[in-house]
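quick one
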Amino acid sequence: MSGTVQPYPVPHSGQDVGEAKDALRAAIRAEREKRSPRTRARAGVEIAQVVGDLPQVREAGCVAAYVSRPTEPDTLPLLEMLAGRGVRVLLPVLGSGLQRDWAWFTSADDLQVRAPGRPPEPGGPTLGAGALVEAEAIIAPALAVDTGGARLGQGGGWYDRVLAYARPEATVVAMVFPEEVYDAVERPLPRQDHDRTVDIVATPTGWTWVREPEGSGH
Ligand SMILES: Nc1nc2c(c(=O)[nH]1)N(C=O)[C@@H](CNc1ccc(C(=O)N[C@@H](CCC(=O)O)C(=O)O)cc1)CN2
Ligand SMILES: Nc1ncnc2c1ncn2[C@@H]1O[C@H](COP(=O)(O)OP(=O)(O)OP(=O)(O)O)[C@@H](O)[C@H]1O
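structure w/ FFO:
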């Protein structure tokens, strides 16, 4: 057992949804700090298998993904698996602010932290925010996801904004550690109007729909 817990800070009176999100982010980040580099590396290998086997990813010619930061599940095994299959992989580029842009994954060696605190980024030409329309599957980072599709991110609103460029039928897959999947009835994640829901949550141990697939009749 990893010994990690599922934080759910009790909201106090007068706290708004944004503050509740921040309290939860802080608690989940603290749990993430406790995982060893070995656990995180193993999670990366396992989650690559899980996500790589998703039918929506197997069928995709273009996938948008991201380069993990130190406490996130490692995404490099997934990036290399997809590239090895000949899938085109879009990666976030933040530019000087938190601008939303994309560039193609070419190789692990090309990924570099280009500003302190930022995720590693590819060095190739940027393609504009709208390049996301190419992706048939979108793998998004998250701190937590609930079983109703709510996603808690790092708090920049980057994905909430950039998902406006996704094609409507693209499948959005959030990747988290198993303890970060929340029951939408017992422990719903704080949610705001601008929050974009995700379709699938993937962890190193498996994946599940968190939103009814189109045409499921529900
Ligand atoms: N791996 C990864 N890539 C991602 C995201 C993510 O959550 N994880 N994002 C999800 O949306 C976007 C980037 N979001 C970001 C949001 C905030 C900061 C940020 O505040 N950075 C601070 C330093 C923070 C630190 O040191 O930890 C800074 O730039 O000053 C950076 C990226 C796109 N790429
Ligand atoms: N579509 C949007 N348009 C304008 N502002 C937005 C939009 N989405 C998010 N924001 C703003 O971005 C900030 C962070 O949003 P939120 O807390 O939902 O981030 P997050 O989804 O956790 O982060 P990220 O997507 O970067 O991982 C909030 O102040 C919010 O008002």
